[in-house]
């Protein structure tokens, strides 16, 4: 939130930095944030921020997390191995991101 400077948070997750050839580079980056549950397309904002800071990066998340909210029980789920089933109630999870809903 502090990095957003009061504006909307466009990306969230975990990032690991490495030093290579005298420069900082991102070794690992994910959108794994159970507080914000960012969409996969949040990568664009992350890439723009890293480019602006002059930090070398990958071309996408090294570990992408798919979040969905279960419609029947309202719990937030992490979709694993393409299995769109709620781990809490067994209900089907929607194909489209719906965590903010």
Task: Considering the chains and any ligands shown, give keywords for the structure.
single chain; 101 residues; alpha+beta; two-stranded antiparallel ribbon; 1 helix; elongated
Assembly type = single chain
Range of helix content: 10-25%
Structural class: alpha+beta
Question: How many distinct helices?
Answer: 1
How far is the first residue's CA from the last residue's CA?
20 Å
Side by side, the strands of the main sheet go 1-2
Q: Kindly provide the radius of gyration, computed on alpha-carbon positions and rounded to a whole number of angstroms.
A: 16 Å
Element string (H = helix, E = strand): EEHEE
Find the count of extended strands (DSSP E, 2+ residues).
4
* Shape descriptor: elongated
Give an overview in words.
- With 101 residues, this protein is an alpha+beta fold.
- The two termini are 20 Å apart.
- The strands form 2 sheets. It has a two-stranded antiparallel ribbon. A two-stranded antiparallel sheet has the order 3-4.
- The protein is elongated.
- A hairpin with a 2-residue loop joins strand 1 and strand 2 (23-30).
- It has one helix spanning 43-53, and strands at 14-20, 23-30, 66-69, 76-79.
- Helix content is 11%, strand content 23%.
